[in-house]
Design brief:
Distance between the termini: 71 Å
Number of helices: 1
CATH topology: Immunoglobulin-like
Order of helices and strands: HEEEEEEEEE
Strand content: 35-45%
Radius of gyration: 23 Å
Largest sheet: 5 strands, mixed
Strand order of the largest sheet: 1-2-8-7-4
CATH class: Mainly Beta
CATH superfamily: Immunoglobulins
Structural class: mainly beta
Number of strands: 9
Length: 170
Amino acid sequence: MDQADSVVNAVDVGQEADHEKGRVHFSQDTDEMGNTAIVIKEKVKGSEYEAHVGFLQLLHRYEIIVKLPLKDASEGYQVGDIPSVYCHAENLQALDDGGLEVSLELLAHKEKLLREKIVLLKPRGGELKLTIHARVLGKRKGTPMLRDGIKCINVEQDDESEASDWQGFT
């Protein structure tokens, strides 16, 4: 191999490295089974659940449908009296298979880990607590792939936007 060939090979390798620079490849946001479903965990039998909804984007409002595996869902659950400013249940519906479908609205109001609680009233008295867990990506940190049962319904205005029309003090 002469000197000219070694220069060409070095350029090819350099271009290949430059070609790969700046590109980030993420695997799909999936659960252990390879699904893009919301992960439901029962923390306290029959009275406390967690829903892990994956990655969301800052200042985006989402409609999230969570299906809870409840045997008494058809008996009439109701939304509790402690509404959250950022997350609230919109609709409750008993499913044919015995579960409860909770349709809720969530505003991803802060970066990193987000935890919001919803309280449902059981048909025979008592409460069922549902905690929503999400990881929120900040501004310019990427666009997440939403899990099944989640859709973005609005993007909120950022008060600290650079596109503000405020001229300052004159």
